[in-house]
Every structure is written in structure tokens, then in C-alpha cells.
Amino acid sequence: MIEGLRLPVPIPRRRERRTPPAATIDPRRYGSLGELLRDALVQFKTSTALVEVTRKRETDRYTYLDFQRAAMPVARRLEQAGVGAGDRVAVLMSNQPRWLIGAYAAMYRGAVLVPLDYKLTADEQAALLAHAKPKALLVEEGLLRRFGPGQVEVPLVLAAERFDELPAGDATYVPRKREDVASIVYSSGTGGRPKGCMLTHDAYLEQLRGLVELFPLVQGDRYFSVLPTNHAIDFMVGFVGPLTGGATVVHQRTLRPEFVRWTMKQHRITHMAVVPLLLEAFERNLEEKLDAEPPTVRAFVEALSAVNEALTQRRPRHALSRRLLGPVHEAFGGELKMLFCGGAFVDRRRAELFYRLGIPVVIGYGLTEACTVATVNDLSPFRADSVGRAVSGVEIRIDAPNADGIGEVLIRGRTVMAGYLDDPELTAETIRDGWLHTGDLGWLDASGHLHLVGRAKNMIVTAGGKNVYPEDVEAAFEGVACEELVVVASNYLWPDERPDEGRLLVVARPKEDGDADALRGALAAKNQSLADYKRARGLVLWERAFPRTASMKIKRQDLAEELRASLDRGQVEAL
Predict the structure, then answer these.
(1) Contact 94, 118 (CB under 8 A)
(2) Distance CA 385, CA 556 (A)
(3) pLDDT tens, residue by residue, 506-524
(4) Nearest of 40, 56, 54 to residue 104 by alpha carbon
């Protein structure tokens, strides 16, 4: 996504008058997210809060005061519908300022947010809405039209495109306490058992406190929101975090490379949160541009990168890096300070490449059940060999370590969820004695840095940062003529796999007189009906009966142990 790379001719830097950076608001002073955001909208009222870009055109801009004024009619409409303390309000929109405006309006009324992934199918979204039982749904008209008659039973459905048509007027602010639930975020459950993580105001405010200590976004900073705001990372660093410090959030509807490049340059982006897939695209584009240059140019870039690396060993020095590698930085907009990256395995070599260029990649580890981030690299010094140390207020422990110190990663702290919605059994299974059992395998080094090596639970994380639970995918294979079928994650069978190597496998027991080739064909056809990131990549035809409980549920762990003991990885067929 890099354009116009020309070396070694320096590019003159554009001088701009900037408002001096201000300190962020201290989250410790507040009892809820709504209270904190309400103060932020007043404190930074003349600063630009939100910018919306469509293709190569800015379509909307809000100051912090505009943001407040735009949210009040929405909050008032929610109040008229009887939405108040503890009621749930679902938000179903693509990236745009109205997502933040609607969410704030709901928090202003003391409601519990239910962010939904707009990329799910209508059936999947309807299933989550039925589980969450919101009192209101804030939704894009295009997404609303995908639902069938009677599929969504919510008392108030409010189209985002109609926000501006609501009559002006104030709403009554409803305070909340730290122990109250702020949001219910689904980590899975679109085709299987719903996992709605109940996150309190205290969890978010404590998470914010820890992140602001390390990476504050302040006035003059411009955050480019490219991940969906329902994503735990973008909700924190693309919504709550920037607004706490008076920064600007830039949204873009179309993420085609040429439009991303234009926005990064036009709005001089300083921060982004990306998934490893996007980081890989950045690197690929950079390599293509360098390959088109004479060998002397590549050698010159490598030499300057080595100099920059030597001078920034202890900490990033943005101004210095831009002076040394100005044309490279201009290709990314000219003022990019750092990239936050998490949600999936981050390639060490790629992260080190960007640091050498003076664009630090902040690698973190977390999960929805722990609010957002449990560990993060603080860049003092930069390290790409781990996922960092525990953020302030979070404890990390390795459970039952083996001879190499590897065991399950456990998390304890105020950022851990209150539990799964309406599922005390699963909550008790996941949180034991105050410790969140992540299902991830790792080890801690002497400096407290966490190193992940695999997964102990049946789940994969795609390069795009999607959590995929095999149990959710199994529903797609209903009706296939076989005795038994399960979907498992390959790194659940073989925990020594690297986190980025995980793939879904179908394990099927054919009928005694069945046609194996016909079964393969039927499974392949069903597999193609899934979204690409949910598709199984391997097939195991298993002759033995699956182990089951007294209630006839498959004992997945016992089955995994059987497969691991007698199945060679080379025996897995491609699907």
C-alpha cells in the first residue's frame, strides 16, 4: 500500500501548526465509560473528534462538541423507548462515526452495549440478537434489509442513516457504577454455544489506565480506524482511547489499497491498529516498490535502516527515523508513529523489519474475556520475540509448566470479564479461583515477557484476527451421510504447532457400507458454502467410534488424545 517511493532524494516535510499535546484524562477519576466520555467531549470541545472518508473524499467531520450534539437526539430517542440503566443496546454497523455516536448515546442512557460483527451472516447476527435480547438495535439500513420477516424481534430498531433526522433535544444522563456491566461482547457462538463476555465499566477503565500509561493518544494524534469497532482492539484504541486524550479518529468505508494510501497521506495518520494480514500487505507493497528501484536504492535503504536500528535500540525516536528514511515514511503518510498489532500471531521478522524502518509495531496479546490486552511490548526496548509483559494491573501465570516451562497461560486482574452471559457452567469452567484459563500455551522468561507457543483449546485465530471455534463450524456439515463428525483445530491435536499454523480439520467416521469418495465430495461441497476464513483445510477419515459422555456428548479432549496418539500429521487429507 505504498505509493511513490523514490530514493535517495529527500522529500520536503510539510510544516503544520499544531495544538500543543494535552494530557489524557485520568480514568481513575470516573465510575463509568459514559461519565469519562461525557467529560472528554466537553474538555476537548473545539478539537476534531471524528472524520469520515469515502474513497478519496472526506464526507463528514465532527468536533468533540459536534459529537456531543449528534449523540443527544439518539440518546433522547432511546430514552423515549424506555432504554435505561442496564438495558441492552445492540450496535450493528460497519466502520463509521455513527458507530461511536450511537454507542456513546447508549452509554449516556446507562445501557449495556452489545457490539455485533457486521461481517457475519444475517442468520448468525439474528442468533446473537436472540441470545442477547437487546431493547434497541442501532443498525445500518443495508444490514437491516438482509434480515427476513420476523427474524429480528427488538422493541426499537433505529437506522444509523436516520440519526440526523431525529429532532434535536437533550436526554437524561443515567450514571453507572464501576461494577456494572458496560458491554456484552461475543467471542463466538454464531453457530454453536453463544459466548457473550460480560465486561464491566471497571474492566474497561482499568484497561484504559494501563494502556494510557504506555501509549497515550493526545491532541494532534490521528488514529486510522480500519478494524471493525466491534473488535475488542479497535473499541479500545480506536474509540475510548483517542477520545480520552483529544485525538482524532479517521474512519474509511472502503479499504482498497489506493484509498488507504490516500487517507494515510491526506490525514497524516499517526497511529493504526492492524491485524497481521494487513501488516503483511504493507510489507509486500514495500517490497514491490523496492524491487522496481535500482539495486543501489535498495542498498541505500538497507544501510539507512541499519543506522536507524542502531540509534533506536533503547526506544523509538520518530523524528530521527523520519529524517533518515523520509521517503519511506512519506509513503505511509509521513507521520506514522506506530502500529498496534494483535489478534493473531505476528511474524517476528516482519515486526523487526518495520522497526528498522522507524515504524514500531506494538505487539500485544489478549482476548475478549480479558477486555482487550493482557500483555504488550512497551518498546523500551523493542522486542519482537515475545508478546510483551503484563500490562499494569494484570497478572500472568503459567499453569502446570512442563520441563521447558511451557504450560497454559492464566490471567488475573480487574480486566477479566464478569462471566459469560446466561452461562454459569461455562463461566465456572473458564474462570477458576479468579484466574482466567485462556487455553493458550506459553512460557515466561526472566524479564517477565510472555512467549506463546500454541493452543491447548479447540480454536484457531486467523491471520485476519478472527477467532474461529470448530464447534461453530460443525453446523455447516449437518446432513452429510456419515456416522459421526467433528471439527477440530489442528493445534488442539498437536499443541507444538506455531500459533499461526493452526487450521480446521474435519474428522468423520464413514458409514460401514458408505462410499468414502462420495463422503469426501459431500464434505467438500459443504465446506465451500462457508466463509473462507471458516473453511476446514484438512480431512481425517476415522474408523473408531467417538468417545461420548453418558448424555451422548462427544468427549472432544479424549478424541483429540486418541487422534494424537495414533494419527500422523501426514495422514491428514486436503479438503
Answers:
(1) yes
(2) 32
(3) 999 998 888 889 999 999 9
(4) 40
